[in-house]
Design goal:
The complex is a heterodimer of chains A (114) and B (111). Chain A has 114 residues and is mainly β. Chain A is built from no helices and eleven strands. In chain A, strands 2, 4, 5, 6, 9, 10 and 11 form a seven-stranded mixed sheet that branches. A four-stranded antiparallel sheet of chain A has the order 1-3-8-7, with no helix packed on it. In chain A, strand 9 and strand 10 form a beta hairpin. Chain B is globular and about 45 Å long. Chain B is mainly β and 111 residues long. Classes of the chains: A mainly beta (114), B mainly beta (111).
């Protein structure tokens, strides 16, 4: 009954540090994605994957890397954190993107870069 | 880049009132989605629309895919306090798995 699990829920980084945001889903979904949510800007797509070994860039990919070695996991790596990356990050998964009931978001990771 | 404009940005309504909000774009899209986000949570898909002119309901929620394929509307009937949250529209870029989200309509219901 886990759905999409994101860890950590909160994180504070210093400028220049690197870290990995974890995302795991237990629904055998092929499609997974990462979004960032900033005040007044809605959600913006960072990277997405349509299956293990396949990833592509979204709207705001700079400063982030992803890989998809398994169907279940889709980690997001911040290479060198910057204050502009302070945001709430959401991972989502879907078996058929856009289909009612098939898209699930995690609870988010609140990241602050100081 | 492509943008979705949602209006109103925020609204206060009395419990029991009907609510209307819309989402417009300067480009044509073939898939329109409506999500709700509760405080501290991720968005939850409410309604998906795939055909111009389509009208789809989900309980007290009704959404329509505009005939020009450049807009969509969401109506909530007989609002209740748990309707509070942010409502986002989203579209899928044709031929891709990329989605664009609107900036959201923040709904507050006064009991």
């Amino acid at each position: 009954n886990a759905g999409v699990t994101q860890t950590p829920k909160f994180q504070v980084l210093k400028t220049g540090q690197s870290m990995t945001l974890q995302c795991a889903q237990d629904m055998n979904h092929e499609y997974m994605s990462w979004y960032r949510q900033d005040p007044g800007m809605g959600l913006r797509l960072i990277h997405y994957s349509v299956g293990a070994g396949i990833t592509d860039q979204g709207e705001v990919p700079n400063g982030y890397n992803v890989s998809r070695s398994t169907t279940e996991d889709f980690p997001l790596r911040l290479l060198s954190a910057a204050p502009s990356q302070t945001s709430v990050y959401f991972c989502a998964s879907s078996s058929n993107p856009g289909t009612r009931g098939d898209t699930f978001f995690g609870q988010g990771t609140r990241l602050t870069v100081v | 880049g492509q943008q979705l404009n949602q209006s109103p940005q925020s609204m206060f309504i009395q419990e029991g009132e009907d609510v209307s909000m819309n989402c417009t774009s300067s480009s044509i899209f073939n898939t329109w989605l409506w999500y709700k986000q509760d405080p501290g949570e991720g968005p939850v898909l409410l309604i998906a629309l795939y055909k111009a002119g389509e009208l789809t309901s989900n309980g007290r929620l009704t959404a329509q895919f505009g005939t020009t394929r450049k807009d969509s509307f969401l109506n909530i009937s007989a609002s209740i306090p748990s309707d509070v949250g942010i409502y986002f529209c989203a579209v899928r870029l044709s031929g891709t798995y990329k989605y664009i989200f609107g900036t959201g309509t923040r709904l507050k219901v006064l009991a």
